[in-house]
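Record Exosortase H, IPTLxxWG-CTERM-specific, 169 aa.
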Amino acid sequence: MLRFGTIFFVLLVSLFTIELLNPVQVHVITPFTSLIADISATLIRLFDENVISYGKIIQSTENGFAVSIEPGCNGVEAIIVLAAAVIAFPASIKHKIYAIFFGFIFIQIFNLGRIISLFYIGQWNIDIFEWAHLYIWPVVIMLDVLIVFLIWLRFLPKAHSQEEPQHES
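=>
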């Protein structure tokens, strides 16, 4: 457990530091965040044509309300936490790649639902938007990460015992 905790902590610090580097922000995080805004707007337009996106902004053309997908809202931090936990856990490289790949997809699908819900909650009631955005959704997203990690653990092959079972004679 100490080994896992140490590796997990070192990976978290390293990955968050890398994420904050200007070249990573410019060439990876900002374009990714814009893509998340575009995908969110595309999904919203399936049932509401009064929405546009530009950069990291999703805006209602009907009432002008807009949300900006800021750092911490694009799902990258949640994926970093999941990746650090998966990499720190003793499992095969193949299982780790599967966990990070499918975890990324699941977390982003969940995050798209979060962004879309906040877009509509904000148009309905800004106080509830602030409360949901600052208190409810951050906890739910990290719970999502924990659930993905626990599901992955459940599907890992069982480690075989090194000792032979003893038989009574």
